[in-house]
Amino acid sequence: MSAYSVTEPSKASKWGAGILVTLYTIITLLPLVWIISTSFKTGPDSISYPPKVFFDPTVEGYVNLFTTRTRPAVSELETLPPPDGIMEEIARRQGTIITGPSRFGERFLNSVIIGFGSTALSIILGTLAAYAFSRFKVPLKDDLLFFILSTRMMPPIAVAIPIYLMYRELGLSDTHLGMILLYTGVNISLAVWLLKGFIDEIPREYEEAALIDGYTRFQAFRKVVLPQAATGIASTAIFCLIFAWNEYAFAVLLTSGNAQTAPPFIPTIIGVGGQDWPAVAAGATLFLLPVMIFTILLRKHLLRGITFGAVRK
Amino acid sequence: MAEVTLSNLSKSYGATQALQNVSLTIPTGAFVVLLGPTGAGKTTTLRLIAGLDKPDAGDIRIGGQSVLQDTPAQRDVAMVFQQYSLYPHLTVRENLAFPLRSPMIAMPEPQIAKRVAEVAEVLRIPHKLDNKATALSGGEMQRVSIGRALVRNPRIYLMDEPLSSLDAKLRADLRIELKRIHADMGATFLYVTHDQIEAMTMATHVGVLDHGRLVQFGTPRQIYEEPVSTYVASRLGQPHINLLPAAAFPGAPPNAAQIGLRPEHIHTGDGQPATITRVEHLGDQTRLHLALGPHSLITLTEPHTALKPGETLHIRPHNPLWFDAAGNRIQSPASERPTP
Predict the structure, then answer these.
(1) Which of A234, A251, B17, B322 is the most buried (most CB within 10 A)?
(2) How far is B73 from chain A (nearest CA, A)?
(3) Mean pLDDT (whole number) for A158-183
(4) Does residue A188 contact residue A122 with C-beta atoms inside 8 Å?
């Protein structure tokens, strides 16, 4: 065996790791780059072969995403008054006129309400349940935890038909509340299990100290446990949001006019006035932003290590 | 400040019997030290009084009132944990202010600032007040942990080996400081330690625990001079008490099985010959390791002794402690002393 240091990797392995990570990053980012660049292309540019890497950027895709348009006869187009505003001008350039706003804004807002709503609910319920499972003698604790986990042992869509029928009976179909409850139901098991692991790692001595220092159990939970569980809560919230935000199958099945989210809506753009790939790409790009911003905002909480050192083991 | 009374307190954790039938009164203003090896039930006693665990049987009274139904906050006790348990997400200042900001105390902020500054001064950590609790050395953490108890004026201070990880100088200083707080404020303390000097110098009363039982309770001098058993006798004494078969020396009372000799019980100059095997110069004292036939024992002599290994020393017991086969002390008239 050759002698090597545990702490200091060799130069060759550093370079090797660097190259691997760079390759992996390129492969992972390529689809994102493709979508974002397509969202700034014109219709013809978006389907040209070979694909254009350098092109004249345009916001046609974004204008088309937010509007509905008709394509009048060329003779009719020439008789119209000059375009009113930048959006109309961009539409005219494509030989179309804007007839009104599209429903993308509304759908996007639905996604925000349902995605963040179900994430918040999953985290609140999940944290309280995880704390109880971690700290108290709960009758049948192991069975309950297994039962909670078992809800994730089949793909959620396997129960689509019973849920569809139940929701129709309960009047929850196509409502924001219905979708929030559904996504919370799916996420709660993940939240309880992940958060229980994080809370288990917070030594009980802190709460005991707080109890003696004059606080009630709930105040100790809020002032001592929650700040230390911030790391776990942040990462759990990201997982929950990503699931609820990207969920497609239930959204197609259970929502339509009122509570439809962005994922089922974006593909419907294709049908409007031919295959409008830039508009689809613009929808996908905007759709990516909230999760990205949320993740970046919580990133500092993802760094572990806050609890190291203050309890002597 | 209040009297704390434990009556017939028992507690087990699973199959482990942590406390059995412990009855103990901590008078108002007393400084009670609990001695015993790991697992004897010292920490359990503190946890039961604090309300962190519920006893299986028995009662705990503070100021005459049973507190069994009270939450830890309602009991108005302060505790210093062996593991420090500083809140890692808070600064030192916030850690010290934490009990004063609790709904139970809710002290006005200007008063909190004053109190925190005072305690920080006593514990010599004013320059660390704005550090995160995690950015301290072990000794500093322990001082903050003591400070978090001292900012309050509780009915009793519970301290679980609070000075154990400090260096000798700081330990000596804080020992005096705690004693001063005890004297000035008339505060009541229940204090767990392994350290003989802490037990002897700080305690007004010492309780010795053995496997969850309180085997002796008395003044430090009683515990040292009048131990009820070999177990209690072994708790205190530097060097350790020498325990030899009773037959090693003449004059054993009937049914004595062991003789207990502390250095002050060993008279040198006449008696039986013993060979010096080692001489340890500790500076302020010198330890002699002796071989008496098949037995070995340790005693003290002057710091600047001329004795050398291999030399012979004559020794005889002087008012020794005698124990029966079960390890219980035999009260012989010869070893009777006036109780302090």
Answers:
(1) A251
(2) 4
(3) 94
(4) yes
